[in-house]
Structure formats: C-alpha cells, structure tokens
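We modelled the chain as a single entity of 128 amino acids. Its sequence is:
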Amino acid sequence: QVHLAESGGGLVQAGGSLRLSCAASGRTFTTYSMGWFRQAPGKEREFVGAISWDGANTFYSDSVKGRFTMSRDNAKHTVYLQLNSLNPEDTAVYYCALRWISTAGSYTYSSSNSYNYWGQGMQDTVSS
C-alpha cells in the first residue's frame, strides 16, 4: 500500500504563487508516475499535470500550461507542483495521485482512472 500526504496549500492573492508537495510513503520502492488533479466547487475533478517516473517528461492541462510546473525528488519520494500567476479560477481542492508503472492496462495520464492511489486533497484558495 501507498500513502500520499499533500502539503503547502492555503490562501493566496491573485497573481501570487504556491508550492504544493506530495510525499509518498509505504510501498514506494516500485517505480511510479504521479499526477495532480483538482476539483472546484460544483465541478468535476480535472487533470492538472503529470510527471513520469524519472521526471524527464511532464504534461499539463491547457488551463495551467506555462503557469504550473511539476518536479520530483525520488530520493525523498516527493513530487512538487509550483503554481505561479494564480487567479481565482485556480481555487480548488488539489489532489496528488500515484500510478505504478507496472499497472496493467493503458496509461492515460490525464485520466483519474489511470491512478492507483490518491491523497486526501488540499484546499487552495486564490482571492481576487
């Protein structure tokens, strides 16, 4: 089993920045990809970004591309999401998710169904 613990969220003014962290514990010796998703009030959960097991490849939704950046430190089993130029539309609960690369089936990094484990979620609020 894997436990994901998110941190770094909070309240920020429009135009500001946040840095979210997601630390994995448990069965972390297995290689895995990571994703970030978010869910705003009254909306469905949406893809934010994903990063490959070695950090060589990152993918972002169009709504955050150029503003958000993912990175990872495998020695610390931690993935980061740097959020810049935030606007009120970025207000949401942010979730990190993990997928073991050995998982059967195709991997669609933008699909929540592709991930094995989820963090508990963390509220990020951007005030105007």
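As a brief sanity check on the tokenised model: The radius of gyration is 14 Å. The mean pLDDT is 94.
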